[in-house]
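Recap from last week: sequence in, structure out.
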Amino acid sequence: MKDDQDHSPEPNDADVQAWLKQAASSETRAFDPDQSLRRVLSHAKQQTATRDVMGFFMSWFWMLFAGFGASIYGAGQRRHPSRQIRKKRRPKPAADQ
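Predicted structure tokens:
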């Protein structure tokens, strides 16, 4: 059963050597931790700024929404004053004399 599953061709030596020469001849970039840190920090600053601006606009939107809601509620209360909830007075206890 193992013979049926293993259909990958074996690489020949010429292909492996050609690949190794190509990999050795290509220039490899040296890892610069300062450049990597600057790139990460600039990305983080951009992301933070975007979140701050979006948070500002969302808070502005919700305050506007709450203002309209309060205005509509107040107008409804002024239009129908009989619908206001009135406090019921407790009866005074009978005086035992």
